[in-house]
Amino acid sequence: MAGPRTKQFNKPKDMKKTFIRLASYLKPHRWILLIIGIALIIAAVATVLGSYMLKPILNEAVRLFTEGSSDFTAFFKLVATLAAIYIVGAGCNYLGQRLLLNVSTSTLLRIRKEMFGHLQRLPLQYFDKRTHGEIMSRFTNDTDTLREMMSQALPNVLTSGLTIIGVLAFMIAMSWQLTLVVLGAFAVMLLVVTKLGKRSVKFFRKRQTALAGTNGFAEEYIEGQREIKLFNREKKAVSDYEKLAEELRTSSTSATTYSMILMPIMGNMNYILYALVAVLGTAMMIHGGEMGIMDVGTLGAFLQYSRQFAQPITQVSQQVNVILNALAGAERIFALLDEPEEVDEGKVTLKKKDGGSWVWVCDGEEIPLRGDVRFFDVTFSYDGTTEVLKNVSLYARPGEKIAFVGSTGAGKTTITNLINRFYDVQKGRITYDGIDVKDIKKDDLRRSLSMVLQDTHLFTGTVKDNIRYGKLDATDEEIVAACKLANADFFIRHLPQGYDTVLTADGANLSQGQRQLLAIARAAVADPPVLILDEATSSIDTRTEALIEKGMDRLMKGRTVFVIAHRLSTVRNSNAIMVLEHGEIIERGDHEDLLKQEGKYYQLYMGMFELS
Length: 612
Fold this sequence. Notes:
612 residues; 6-stranded mixed β-sheet; 15 strands; 4-stranded antiparallel β-sheet; alpha/beta
């Protein structure tokens, strides 16, 4: 059940190690970072000095007023100095932020490139064990938290920290008595914020849970509208949704109430503190001899500092959570980058000769590529415990069509996964033209194979580009020939722009059968000696299936073909049919032989049992 995307707080397991590793990505920018640091320090100092300049400006204004002087030269100089300080501070802040933006985007670009490049080198089992959403979260949520930390949190912590130190130092220098008052009032504010914050967080969590439940319910029931209407369950759906919506309303009201009263309380307490400092400061001016030295300028500057004091502390506390969250995200990114890459110890390579034929190059010897595949007592387990294949032996001579039939989980797809070395066998061996597949480089091995899966994936781009994915240097003529071979040319030419029609959203503007035909054409243009069809026609209607059977027959000529199919009509013309059950081959032979045996295949073909 899907829910909304919410920002969760996470804490890194090893903060120091993660931070050091993240800092290594910033090493190429160390001189720019030095400039950024200096610029942000100057900006923070300018903020503190700007407030301090109120003291001489106010005192000069009081002097002019009390003396009735018309000489404003000193006053204008002080105002000009204040303006210059703020201009320099603003300029340095802009420079620091602009350079930091360049550094953060460059660093994230490097991290994203490393992640995506590393992802391409990971074994297929990594993707089998994780959801796409989990992997995508590394590229979206985790990198986004890093961007926020580098471009906002870290500079804010630096400038806010310097501002706090500077403001506190000037406040103590001006009046340690009033500084104690400010610190005491701030301690009370923190206590109030902590109490209200705990209550608010509890209700916000309830709200997020209720929101996730409401959205998930709505998504599920929108997708299930056909079933709802079929069984007349509209009223029940509305009733169930109203209960979830009411829970969301209650928790949202409570959460919003606490968050709304927090700011007015803090604002009013700030006003009270401001008034208290003003009253006490005024008293100190009147009774200067008894309570210390205080003048109008000092009081004005101190009041400004008292307003500035709370803001940077609040910013630091907020940014600390952002930094911890970002380091947790970086930890997950580094965990991805530390995943072991696909191991390839093969040395045998594939080479195309001048005549167009392909040969295996093994220790200088050239072996013709024919497509002879054999299994010798192969045993395999995905998890090291449960055996998916048990002592499987079979052979496929060049040009033969071998079919695998059996229930879900019988091991049919596993056999094809082992042929192209998505996984390696634990026991036994597989040979390709007499060469152990473990000795063949994976890139070269997979170049000699084409595979059409049950779930077709089409990339964003034109029809032509999607077919050319099987052979990047394929000419337009080769693409058209491959489509004719797969009987896809007819429907392609009736698309709005023909072969130049742009496909988006995984080919959502095509029918499932049309998408499957494109996948078959993509395999055909690669012109491989070995072809693997894993439920390739399961999503195609019988009429479309009849159309492609002729094309498939032409495509399979001279090739070794492995077919996995639930529809037994698609495997009748196979040279050999293997019936698998619980990882073992229980029957083998061609269609006529297996019918004569009257075993499992006979029962399936006659409809006495169904494949699950």
